[in-house]
Amino acid sequence: MGKYFGTDGFRGKANVELTAEKAFKVGRYLGWYYGQNHEDHRARIIIGKDTRRSSYMLEDALCSGLTSSGADAYLLHVTTTPSVSYCCRMDGFDCGIMISASHNPYYDNGIKIMRANGQKIEPEIEEKVEAYIDGEVGELPYAVEDAIGRTIDYSAGRNRYIGYLMTIPTRAFNGWKVGLDCANGASSVIAKSVFEALGAKTFVIHNQPDGVNINDHCGSTHIEALQQFVVDNGLDVGFAFDGDADRCLAVDEKGKVVNGDQIMYLCGKYLHEIGNLDHDMIVTTVMSNLGFYKTCDSIGLKYQQTAVGDKYVAENMMANGYVLGGEQSGHIIFGKYATTGDGVLTSLMVMQTMLEKKMPLSMMADEMQIYPQVLKNIVVYDKAQTQANEKVKAAVQAAVDGLGDSGRILVRESGTEPKIRVMVEAGTEEECEKWVDSVIDVIREEGLAAK
Fold first, then answer.
1. How far is CA 396 from the centre of its chain?
2. How far is CA 407 from CA 208, 248, 265, 292, 401, in A?
C-alpha cells in the first residue's frame, strides 16, 4: 500500500486527508499521463460518484485537473462503482474514476481509479500519482487554447449499464417479493429499476439519499433493518448494498443473513452443476470461513486464496481464467459478466440460482456450515508499528499455539482505515472472543491504540 492509495483507492476524511487540492492533482496527473498515449486525440476519462455531499466537490476538482491537462471528462453523475467499470471496458475509455468511500460514513470519501478493462489501476500508476501529489516530480504542462479538455454529460452510459443488467437473468422474477436496502447510496438510482423491469414485486428501503445519510444504520454494514423488513413484509428474499454498490449481502425468507461466502458457495455449486464454473474453481481471500472450504471439499469444488481485497481476487481470476470469486463481505465477481465486484449483479445471480433450483434461499445457504468467527477492529496510531511490536507478535503466536488445528487467527492491517483487524475462527464463539481479546488487550497495554 502507498502513502495515499490503499487496497481500495485513495480514501480519507473529506477536506482533511482527501482534499479538493489533492483531487485536483489526481486529475492533473491522470489527464496528462493518459494524454501521452494519444497523438491523434485527447484522453477520455469517465467519472462516477456516490451520494456523499463531498462527492460533488471532489468531482469538480477532478474535472478541473483532467481538463486543464487536456483530457475530456465524461460524467456518469450518481452511479455505482461497477457501472464505471462497465463503461470503461465497453466504451473505450482510457480510465475510470469512482468517487466513493464505499461502506464508510458520509464524512469520508475516496477516489478509486480503474484501467481501461474495468479493473483497479496498477500500483505503479498509483505510485506516480502519489509522487506528483507530494511534489516529487516536475510540474506538468497545462493545456492551452483548443487543447483544453471538456466536461461532457454521459448519463447515457449509466442507462446502458442498467439495460445490460436486465439482460443477464434468463428468467423473469414474476411473483417474487424482493426487498432492497440501497444504503441511501448509489444503488438508489439503479437497483429498483432493474428488479421491477424483471417483474419482481419490489420493496425498497433507504433509497432517499440526502448527502449525509449514506450507510447510516442501513445497507450491507447494518443489515438488521433489512432482516426485520423482510420478516415484517413476508418477502421471499432481501438484498443489501453498500454505498457504491460493489458489494451485496442477502437475507433469506426467514430473516437470516446470507454472507458473501454463502453466496459464492450456492452460486458456485449451481454454476458447477450446469458446467459453467470453469476449472471448478472459486477464488476467495484469507478471510473466508473455514466452513466454506470444508463444504466445497465435500462436493468437489476447488478454491484458491488471495490477500484481502477484491482487486487481488480479480487479478487472480483474470490471470487464470476463473469465473467466480469474492469476499465474505459481499464483494463477489462474476467473471463472465464483470471485472469487478457488483452488488446488483450479485443479487441477480442469487435470484437466478433460486429460480433455476426451485429452492428458497434458506435451504441453499444452510448447506454450508459456518464456523464461529469473531472479527474486531482496533484503531491504532501506526499500523506497521503495531504489527511489528514484539509483544503483539508473541500474543498472536500464543493464539496460534492455543488454537492448534481446530481454528486459526488472522491479524492484518486495514487497507482503507487506521485500524488493525483481528479475526479468530474456532469451535465456539467464546473461544474466538478469548483469543481475539488476548491480542487486542496487548495492543492497548503497549500504548498502540489510538482510542
1. 28
2. 43, 27, 21, 14, 10
125 phi and psi angles, rounded to 5 deg: -75, -40
- Residue 294 CB: number of other CB atoms within 10 A? 12
24, 53 contact by CB (below 8 A)? no
Asked about 288 being catalytic, the answer comes back as no
Q: Which of 85, 100, 102, 188 is catalytic?
A: 102
Whose CA is closest to 242, among 108, 81, 55?
Answer: 81
Instruction: List the grid coordinates of 424.
Output: 479468530
Write the DSSP symbol of residue 275: T
- Which residues lie closer than 8 Å to 251 by C-beta, 6 or more apart? 179, 223, 226, 227, 230, 237, 238, 239, 240, 257, 258
pTM of the complete model: 0.90
Q: How far apart are CA 100 and CA 245, in angstroms?
A: 10
**Residue 313 DSSP class:** H
Q: How many CB atoms lie within 10 A of CB 257?
A: 17
Q: What is the DSSP string of 364-394?
A: HHTTSPPPPEEEEEEEBS-HHHHHH-HHHHH
- Give the tens place of pLDDT for each residue, 285-307: 988 998 899 899 999 999 999 99
Residue with cell 444504503: 183
Measured distance CA(26)–CA(442) in Å, rounded? 39
160: Cα within 13 Å, side-chain hemisphere: 13
User: How far, rounded to the nearest angstrom, does the alpha carbon of residue 105 sit from its chain's CA centroid?
Assistant: 15
SS3 304: strand
- Which of 305, 417, 429, 415 lies closest to 373 in space, CA to CA? 429
CA-closest candidate to residue 331, choices 316, 341, 323: 341
Give 134-169 pLDDT, tens digit per residue. 999 888 999 999 999 999 999 999 999 999 999 999
